[in-house]
């Protein structure tokens, strides 16, 4: 019985709000104005690689220090 009452309350609450506005995000991009060269691409990939690998390597190399209780 409580399920029937709950369903009618939910339907009533949703009906009293009216129609909700649905927001949609749109994303449009254009081609690049200048093509990136090999140097810029390799530099960007290198920086991205180091920013992910360097902290992981630091943690892995100091894992024993983190395990020890002082």
From TrEMBL:
One of its GO terms (cellular component) is respiratory chain complex IV. Keywords: Membrane, Mitochondrion, Mitochondrion inner membrane, Transit peptide, Transmembrane, Transmembrane helix. It comes from Betta splendens (Siamese fighting fish). The gene is LOC114848515. It is a single-pass membrane protein. SUPFAM superfamilies: Mitochondrial cytochrome c oxidase subunit VIIIb (aka IX). Its main location: mitochondrion. InterPro entries: Cyt_c_oxidase_su8 (IPR003205), Cyt_c_oxidase_su8_sf (IPR036548). This is Cytochrome c oxidase subunit 8A, mitochondrial-like. Gene3D superfamilies: Cytochrome c oxidase, subunit 8.
């Amino acid at each position: 019985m409580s399920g029937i009452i709950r369903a009618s309350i939910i339907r009533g609450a949703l009906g009293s709000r009216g129609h909700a506005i649905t927001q949609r995000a749109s994303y449009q991009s254009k081609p690049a104005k200048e093509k990136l060269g090999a140097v810029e691409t390799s530099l960007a990939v290198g920086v991205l690689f180091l920013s992910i690998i360097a902290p992981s390597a630091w943690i892995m190399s100091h894992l024993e220090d983190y395990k020890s209780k002082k």
